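Exercise 3.2. Students should predict the tertiary structure of the chain below and write it as structure tokens, then compare their answer with the key that follows.

Predict this chain's 3D structure.
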Amino acid sequence: MSKVKNMAWDNAEEQSDNIINQYCIGSIDETTAKKQLADVDNLSLCGIDEDNVDEVLDIAKQEYGAKLLYKNEYLR
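Answer key:
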């Protein structure tokens, strides 16, 4: 893979991870997250597109909730 493609992929991944994390912690709502994700350049390199963005956000929210539950149970 070329250096330019790697850089584009890394940038898209970093931006999308930040948006998804903000959504999971409740800083932004689902509509805002979708809009912000749509504005990320080269997002398709991360495997996210308009057809699966809902699924990606739902899975991320579920995994975040499971991590919180596990963490809370572990700390008891």
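Discussion points: The mean pLDDT is 91. Helices lie at 3-25, 30-38, 53-75.
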